[in-house]
Amino acid sequence: MAQETLPERSPAEGTRTGGGREAPERPGRAARLGARLRRGGRAGWGRTLLVMAAGAAMWLAFPPFDLTPLAPVGVALFTLALRGLTARTGAWLGFVGGAAFFIPVLEGIGQIGPDAWIVLALVQALYFLPLGAGTALVTRLPAWPLWTASLWVGEELLRGRVPFGGFPWARLAFSQTATPLTPYASWGGAPLVTFLTALAGGLLACAAVAAHRAHRARRARTGGDGPSPGPRRTLLPAAAALAGIAAVAGGGALIPTPTSGRPVTVAVIQGDVPRIGLDWQGQRKAVLNNHVRVTRELAARVRAGDVPRPELVVWPENASDLDPYTDPEAYNAIDAAVKDVGVPVLVGALTDTPDGEKVENRGIVWDPRSGPGDYYVKRHPVPFGEYLPFRDVLTRLITRFERIPRDFAKGTRSGVMRLGPVTVGDVICFEVAYDREVRDVAAGNLLVVQTNNATYGRTSLPPQQIAMSRLRAVEHGRTILVAATSGISAIVAPDGRVVDRSREFVPDIQVATVPARTATTPADRLGAAPEWVLAALGLGALCAAAWAPARRTSAGGNRAGRDSAGSNEGN
User: Fold this and answer.
1) Spatial separation of the C-alpha atoms in residues 358 and 351, rounded to whole Å
2) Which stretches of 106-184 are DSSP H helices?
3) Which residues are catalytic?
């Protein structure tokens, strides 16, 4: 047998191995990194910029900008950036997009400190890691806009529960409080609105992909590269996706939003605070005096006939940081103001627990004849704001936590209480962001949000809280009374319209006749079921997408084995 002659190789091309063969030399680490960068190249940076643009677009959809159509646009950009990637790359880009969204949308937290703001924003962006990975996987499946939308619901379900009870601020639904999608809240709550917002974004991305394919097909046809589909056929998927968006938006207009109910005249008091910032709490007596004075002003205006006599009055959270049960001066000031206006007042006050070890954030029903009666204790105190997990460790590391000398106690029952002629369902401050807390008190004829936004004044957080209240009004078909120490206070009708709204850092009195309702919405009856069902759809799609490549790989290996066997038989 003739000896095979091999071409000569330089040492740089390879090294000789046993048996006379040459093996290619493994490139160095720097060379491998350079090759990776060249392979990613412009496309890698382009996708990064695309997810950052997605985060910015979603941010602008929220108050105070209220460019609501940008929410589905942001979802579309996010989906396009991740489509076709591996799960690992999708996870990383998801985190980048999440950071580009949460850092600006939570800028109000910077009033506490820039470190708290950035840390919270980046922690929230971590939830976009599984969202990004899942989006990259499920876009390989048919009907992928449905599955990507379900993943958004799953991300919000997780973020709103873990850890420490979660932080459900800046959900997609809260950007859609005055859009064609808003009425869907009465059917499936905030999760359904999030799903449909993300679905509109997914369909928009699908239309963009189809249009791009049609453009490529047209170029191939004009370039003479062979037969290609006609223009109508290639544009049909894009048209179908856009029609789907129109159907989703149009469907909202067919859902009735209630406005009827027993009329009741209500008043919301905003007493204002001495100054902006964290140190306002050191002037507790001044804050209480402000609310007493404005309530007496309301009573004087009623006697003068300038405003109708209310049947109930609502004060905000922290209207009294002096415990009226133990401080006689605070008790007498509140009692005198309530007697002056002559109707029950829901008073927001901080009180000591019986053992004195913790603080309760209460809404107290104060009657002009019998004084303080029924009350609600905030069930979801703010972690790292109203109580400290791992207190012993954190107080040694971060001196700022010394401002929280005692933890707030957690309430154990819902805030449905009798207030004058109606029942009210009370939630305090950021509890309005939680589906369960608001759903639990929706049995009241009216809903009340007592809040203290003094620390976050003139940031994006107070208007975002009003947006949440507007969605809750539609979700449960209830008038919502938002009472804030420094603003924004508001009266919101059951259809989400803002009847009255205050400015920030001014005293304000709002009096209006609003419907008190007893009927329940489908969202009330379904409870958390829509959220869990939609999240389960996303999880199922994720499992199918992860299983499909393995199945294809296995099938490919089996085919290769059969082909090899057939070849051997032929020889």
Assistant:
1) 9
2) 114-125, 128-138, 144-159
3) 317, 378, 429
Q: Which residue has tokens 């804050």?
A: 287
| DSSP 8-state code for residue 403 | G
pLDDT in tens, 147-189: 999 999 999 999 999 999 999 999 999 999 999 999 999 999 9
Helical (H) or strand (E) element with 181: none
| pLDDT band of 305, cuts 50, 70, 90 | very high
Phi/psi for 352 (5° steps) reads -80, 145
Convert the pLDDT of each residue in 324-333 to its tens digit: 999 999 999 9
Can you read off the two tokens belonging to residue 195?
């799903």
Q: Which of 397, 401, 361 is nearest to 385 (CA)?
A: 401
pLDDT tens sequence across 280-289: 445 788 999 9
Q: In the beta sheet, which residues pair with residue 513?
A: 265
Q: Per the structure block, which two tokens stand in for 224?
A: 């003479």
pTM metric for this prediction: 0.88
Q: Do the Cβ atoms of 101 and 460 come closer than 8 Å?
A: no
Is residue 333 a contact partner of residue 289, using CB atoms and an 8 Å limit? Answer: yes
Of 344, 337, 343, the closest CA to residue 288 belongs to 337
Q: 225-259 burial string, b = 16+ CB within 10 Å, else e?
A: eeebeeeeebbebbeebbebbeebeeebeeeebbe
Cβ–Cβ under 8 Å, residues 352 and 359: yes
Pairing of β 416-419 and β 422-428: antiparallel
Sequence-ordered list of residues with C-beta below 8 angstroms from that of 481, at least 6 positions apart, any chain? 266, 268, 314, 424, 446, 447, 448, 449, 491, 492
Say if residues 81 and 128 touch (Cβ distance below 8 Å).
no
**Residue 408, φ and ψ in degrees, nearest 5:** -85, 140
Does 95 have pLDDT greater than 80?
Answer: yes
